[in-house]
Amino acid sequence: MKIKLTLLCFIATLFSLQAQTSVKPTLSENSGSISGKVIDKKTNEPLTYVNVVIKENNKVVTGGITADNGTFQIKNLALKEYVVEIQFIGYKTILKSVNLSEKNNINLNTIAIEEDAIELKGVSIISERSTIEQKIDRKIINVGKDLTTAGATASEIMSNIPSVNVDQDGKISLRGNENVRILVDGRPSNIEASQLLKQIPSTSIKKIELITNPSAKYNPEGMSGIINIVLHKNANDGFNASVNTGITFAKKPKINSSTNMNYRTGKVNFFATYGNNFGEKFNEGSILRLDDLSNQSLDIKNNDKSHLYKIGMDYYINDKNTLSVYTNQNKLIGDGRVDVTISNPDAINNLFQTSKYKGTSADGTYNLAFKHLTKKEGETLDLEINHSIYSGTQNANFLTTFSNPVFPTNTYRDDIIDSRKNSTVNLDYVNPLNEKSKLEIGAETRIVRTANNYLTSSSALSNSNYNYDLDIHSAYVTFGQKFSKIGYQLGARLESYKVDAKLNNATAFKDDYITVYPSASMTYSPSEKDQFQVSFSRRVDRPSLEQTKPIREFSTPRITSIGNPELEPQFTNSVELNYTKTITKGSITTGVFVRKINNEINRIIYPDPQNLDQQILSFDNFDNNQSYGFEASLNYKINSWWDIQPAVDFSSITQKGLISVFNSGTNSFDLVKKEVESSAFNARFNSNFKATKNLRFLLFGFYRSGVDGVQINGKEMYKIDAGGRYSFLKDKATVSIRFNDIFDTMKAGFSGDNPYPQVGQFKWESQSVYVGFNYMFGAGKNKSLQRKQRDDNTKQGGGGLF
């Protein structure tokens, strides 16, 4: 086999939905049928949702899948000779020749298939290494053991994924833009994305989906698209489990572990995941002011203990109805210390500040979903109710001492209490109008309530109470058609958006509007190995609580980070063209995109009006900006023991914004417009080597170019990683090791001229050694289930027709 088995099954299922001719034959011409039953050869148990593909002259005519009892029946066949292929992942393919011209209805009786214990040529086993699948509306990275070896958390393995970047603070950007929506199991979280990704163990992740130009079916948030992290949830018969543990050796050891379990019996499937991370993490940095030659040095230590739980159940009421419930629980206990030293040419003006932070947070998500299948093939109704609750507290103590004895020691304490509630109700209906057309309609209501209380003992600051509430109601419709080589989909989402922000019970910001978000996509497949896709969508980025609350996020003697309650949403119109080419030993994916951004939200820095030696880091709406770029990736198997996955992406960005420029005449700062044209280039190279049947090695390289901004210019970053993996106990156990940033080259450098000329650099524990152990046990048999949302806990729409 020269293409991956999973891809073959996907194509077979895809073609089974297509009409094969533009003229409907008469009933007599379509009076043939083929039936049978598929069972496991070893256990004699019926196998559910096995692919049954009908071919004529090696071309796919139609197909279907087996029912819960293993039976299948393919009707309305012309009276010709066919080959029936029985395909199931992990099993050997069975071929049966039939001749309906001799007998209209043929029963193949019981077909016993056996597990494929031999490694087939060209077949990629997802559990062995990561694979990249290019779907019509998304790129899917199936997380194999080589990718989880990259690090202990989701944040650490993100840097290995094409088009995705992670900065030193854990913030994610997609195609060079930080305005990306992060979902877990298809649902948003109340936890800030950079913090959430640090809490999810890498071994709890099943796959990562990159949706760069979503259809109208998706919530329109996220300018550069959506990153959806799908956690493990098995549906195998019997009891199955895996245990993972790992330790990262850096300045101090850090430990992570996770357990994934499921138990299925009869109509009920129980599943559970638990993961944790704990250990001290260290960062350091310096910022040099070139105007007065003062230097600000930071030494940061965080000691966090995080726990992730996922518990759920599927109840298969009958063949047409499924009820699912699950809960995700994130717990974090952390404390940190930040030591800041400000050195001046005149040492008498030096100062030192120590700040100690202690905090806890808890985020609980509760999900109820019901899926109904009608008698009509492909017609479904899905109802999903999701409610999440977040609570967090932070206590901070600040101690500032001065070299000059004239200034007394300054101490004060901050207390912050956060609470957020997010309730969402989704209703989705899918109706295949005929063999070529599909209609999807749906509605969503989202209610968000947040409260933030800030208490301080500092005489220079004031207590405050901030509330930020959202009400969003929307409805969408998409319509698509698929012909022999061309398919298209059109959609629109109508949304009512209302925000009400109050500071100390007074209105800080208010907005209420109704808008439409259109989307369109078209595919062209000149052959089975080539596919073109062009798409358009309009999206929005709404200010988050962190971006709007006028309460300090962090503070040093020279800089304080606060939000801007007057931020307005930014809107993006995006067009992209993608091409996927299947070659003998792999696949190539390429794409180009253009984005027009109105009211872009971006970081700004300006002098504190109360003290010009201090700076405020906040957010503001820039002018209309635009960007364009391309990306390309290759998944290529050089030979039986060596495969490579190189990837590059490039973005050209034009930004217009305001900068603070010092006016010597007035001895103050003026706001001046500035336009910057810059580019960002990223390259990754992943190479896997198979030394023996059980021993494998990997080599990973990463490069990110410097990027100029309106105020701050970022410097280039690069690193090289290497690792290995050894499997034993019949592949049930795995030991892996990875040496990250071998040459200790990862540093986040920057420079800027406004509001002050300054250069700086931050360094973290990028050079580390990770050692992991994985063990799988259980005697359950794989029983694939066709449940659109429940298997991955995420909505797959927006192009599912194609």
Give short descriptive properties of this protein:
22-stranded antiparallel β-barrel, 802 residues, mainly beta, five-stranded mixed β-sheet, disordered C terminus, 5 helices, globular
What does this entry look like structurally?
By secondary structure, the chain is mainly beta. Helix content is 4%, strand content 63%. The strands form six sheets. The protein has a 22-stranded antiparallel barrel. The protein has a five-stranded mixed sheet with strand order 8-9-13-14-12, with no helix packed on it. A four-stranded antiparallel sheet has the order 3-2-5-6, covered by helices on one side. The longest helix is centred in the N-terminal third of the chain and has 12 residues, at 5-16. Mean pLDDT is 82; it is low at 1-28, 117-129 and 780-802.
Helix-strand layout with pairing:
Elements: H1 5-16, E1 32-40, E2 51-56, E3 59-65, E4 71-77, E5 81-87, E6 94-99, E7 105-113, E8 131-134, E9 139-142, H2 145-148, H3 154-158, E10 164-166, E11 172-174, E12 181-184, H4 193-199, E13 205-211, E14 226-231, E15 238-249, E16 254-265, E17 268-289, E18 295-318, E19 321-343, E20 351-373, E21 380-402, E22 410-431, E23 437-456, E24 464-482, E25 486-503, E26 506-527, E27 530-541, H5 545-548, E28 554-555, E29 559-561, E30 570-583, E31 586-598, E32 601-608, E33 611-621, E34 625-639, E35 642-663, E36 668-690, E37 695-704, E38 707-708, E39 712-714, E40 717-728, E41 733-740, E42 748-752, E43 758-764, E44 768-778
Parallel strand pairs: 1-7, 12-14, 29-33
Antiparallel strand pairs: 1-4, 2-3, 2-5, 5-6, 8-9, 9-13, 10-11, 13-14, 15-16, 15-44, 16-17, 17-18, 17-43, 18-19, 19-20, 20-21, 21-22, 22-23, 23-24, 24-25, 25-26, 26-27, 27-30, 28-29, 30-31, 31-34, 32-33, 34-35, 35-36, 36-37, 37-40, 38-39, 39-42, 40-41, 41-44, 42-43
